Amino acid sequence: MFAILDKLAKDLKLYIVAMDCFRGETKDKHLNDFVDWIRRHPFEDDQSIKGENVMVHPVRKDIDLCFEFLSVQFGVDSSNVGAIGFCWGVWAMTKACAMGINFKCGVGFHPSLVIEDMAFEMDHRNIARLAAERMPLLLCVAGNDHDNLKPPDGEVARMISSSKHSNDGAEGVGTKQQPKCVDFPDQKHGWVSRGDTSIEKVREDADKALKMSTEFLLDWL
Length: 221
Description:
The protein is α/β, with parallel strands linked by helices.
């Protein structure tokens, strides 16, 4: 993933900050307590695990620190910050936007929005709807991802593709890539960041997804 972000930073000529909300932990270390582990990283403090004495790292605090770092260190205008998510990161990105964090646009690979339902007993369609209303989104969806993310009939896919966003008076109004979900039916969840690129089709689709995402970010940032 970090190699991908390095390449995007170079291609886009933008600052990219990689958040480590899990403090170095990985899914492989939590196969037997996956949902409990995810619940230790709620969006807000008030979603903390009830009655359990565990360390909780709210995602909002980490995002706020990233905005502060970009502003203080590099003078980045907070109104011109985009978001990139992989798997869990797409949930974090859409949840943040739904909760009022103003990303300019967002790109997501093999989204896991159902974390909202699975770990926090809420409806992921609600955060998808709010995020789609507030920012242009491009989601690259694997064949075994949730069906409601897949065009043309998926509910979330339709929310995103029907959303309308302003070009803020920029030249070439109407020329920006439109928000959408793109289906990669031959790929499995995670193929962009950890797929076997020795397989030609995996490599081709990963390159295609990254190219589309680069162009989308360049259009909207």
